[in-house]
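Dear Dr. H.,

I hope your travels went smoothly. While you were away I took the liberty of generating a structure for the chain from your last submission, since the lab meeting agenda had it listed for discussion. I wanted you to have the full record in hand beforehand rather than looking at slides cold. The sequence, exactly as received, is reproduced here:
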Amino acid sequence: MKRTDQPAGTRTAPRRRVLISGAGIAGPALAFWLNRYGYAVTVVEKAPTLRGGGYPVDVRGTALDVVARMGILPRLRDAHIDLRRLTFLEGDGGEVASLHPHKVTGGVAGRDLEVRRGDLTDALYMAVRDDVEFLFNDSIATLDQSGHGVDVTFRGGGRRTFDMVFAADGMHSRTRETLFGPEERFHHHLGYCFAVFTMPNTFGLSHETVMWNAPGRAAALYAVGDDDEVHAFLNFAHPEPPSDTFRDPEAQRDLVASAFADAGWEVPAMIAAMRDADDLFFDAVGQIRMPRWSSGRVALVGDAAWAPSFLTGQGTSLALVGAYMLAGSLAHQDHAAGFAAYEHSTREFVTMNQGLVGKGGATLFPTTPQALEQRNNRLRELGAIPSGEGRPAHSALTLPDPIGDSLGNG
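The corresponding predicted structure, in token form, is as follows:
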């Protein structure tokens, strides 16, 4: 059966129409599976086109089963970055340890994937572009659920009615805010801020990451391959989200520069490059924790529902798994029963992976000299330990089989 085929006799009624806000990772993945189950899918994206490039992302554990069932696993294997070395440095630039990245991240060599974010979004888009309507350079302005569906007004001026709407528009989801209120109610700050950008690879780095640490501060250079550019990463402790900087790029640059004012190693060159970077991304490190993921005929998925933070390394994998589980829950049921099933089947997996913040990435950024020394000792010990089988949380959910029949047609 081809991807868009439906079982005989199911298309006797009009296809139910659904809208997905966001064409990142969760959105197109959800579009793929809802289309498979017979829904007429529209995806609206505020950007004028797909967003290419971006920081590399990981696809691990259960998420590998999702991309395999979508038929895009071979393409992603071809795009695998194959990071070979992760080197940690003292504040004075001396080496602490040089390890294979999987020993730190809990990844499994030969199985888990790391790809450029743009390579993943391209693969997802190619898998659905012929079957799904995309509206770029537009977004949801208002939602009205007072009738039998969801009346949507777009910022571009259009008005349409859908049977269901899905928010896949990221951690700072405007759709979520419309339904549930300000982000502050659900955002749990994890004590850091970070900035990422690209800069010239004048360091001779290839397929590796080098990370400098001082208490409460980290600076890393990430060479995806033999490219002329590297990804630069600056992370620093900050007790509260700096709300006054989020809409002011110059204030963001000033805050980061101030945090690293006396840093050594290559940090001064990184700060200078950040000043001129046209792709700077700055944010607070936090998680979204929601008491429920739906309201009426609207549901949340991906970072809009549960952003786990980069400290877990699981944002992409959770988005892919969540999209699969949400669509499958709606294949045989109406929105009320489907949304309840989605939460019942998926929340424990999400909560377990959100809990990795204290076991993985967060331990890489100690805030005191004592904690930094303890971390360095652990890293030295890791060098003598064989790589394991991955973190249990990565594969803690077993996917149900894709459903052959559907309610998407009425």
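Two observations you may find useful: The first helix runs from residue 26 to 36. The CA atoms of residues 57 and 349 lie 19 Å apart.

With kind regards,
E. W.
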